[in-house]
Amino acid sequence: MTIASSVSARPPRAKSAPGPEATVRSSQDAATNEQQSRILRATQQTIAEHGYAASTVTEIIARAGISSKTFYKHFADKLDAALALMHLIVDEATSRIENSIDRHAPWPERVYSSLEFLLALLAENPQIARFVVVEIQAAGPRALADYHRLLRQYASSLEPRATEMSGRLQSRPGVADQIAGAISQLLYDNIVTSQIADLPDLLPDLTEIALAPYIGPQRAAAFVNSHAKRVNSV
Questions:
Q1: DSSP 13
Q2: C-alpha distances in angstroms, 215 versus 105, 159, 175, 183?
């Protein structure tokens, strides 16, 4: 389930019968994708080794085996490359999470499955987990704003559908922000203390955090407990 391979060039376009100009353009696109891929892999490796603050464009360039001209052709600076890497990783993770969920399952089950997959993905990719959750937050206000925006988007994906908003389900403004903040803090605390392999143990707590604003803490806890009993009985 590794997502390290996501830091690679986009797949080539479908083959047709290109003319000379199209062939040249296709070759140029492939070269551009390969250059970007090498830079992003080097960015990931450099930050994993030194941390964001101590990483330099010079080392990224050396690790990628490219010229400074090539780096600055694609990215304005270290932050630009780091943000591009974060978005690439998040896009890949989001796609995998969405594909893992049974869209016809009841809302609490979808929340549980989404969080379960997310935590497993982070636990299996410790360098990426540290980069996305810890290092990117040390990259300054722009990176922090991007990080929180992406986290809010994920938290919003955990909300019940409008057709499910009846009876016990109640939506309130700012709920997604609250859930995002709580998820972020728990992930950060565990990753920064090198407990990445134990992230799946956070599943019950995160599930309750995501459910409680809509159905109350008692119902949320009851769902988590009943789900744990079903899993243990299998």
A1: P
A2: 17, 11, 12, 18
Boundaries of every domain in the chain: 21-75, 79-233
Q: Is the pLDDT of residue 1 over 70?
A: no
> In degrees, to the nearest 5, what angle opens at C-alpha 41 toward C-alphas 39 and 42?
65
For domain 79-233, is the CATH number 1.10.357? yes
CA distance linking residue 104 with residue 111, whole number of Å: 12
Residue of 102, 108, 107 lying closest to 225 (CA atoms) = 108
Q: How far apart are CA 8 and CA 39, in angstroms?
A: 10
Angle between helices 217-233 and 107-124 (to 10 degrees): 70
The pLDDT tens digits for 26-71 are 555 666 789 999 999 999 999 999 999 999 999 999 999 999 999 9
Which helix (H) or strand (E) segment is 162 a member of?
none
Fold of 21-75: Arc Repressor Mutant, subunit A (1.10.10)
Using alpha carbons, select from 48, 57, 59, 203 the residue that is nearest to residue 132.
48
Q: For residue 200, what is the DSSP state?
A: G
Q: Answer for the pair 122, 187: CB distance below 8 angstroms, yes or no.
A: yes
User: Within a 10 A sphere around the Cβ of 155, how many other Cβ atoms?
Assistant: 21
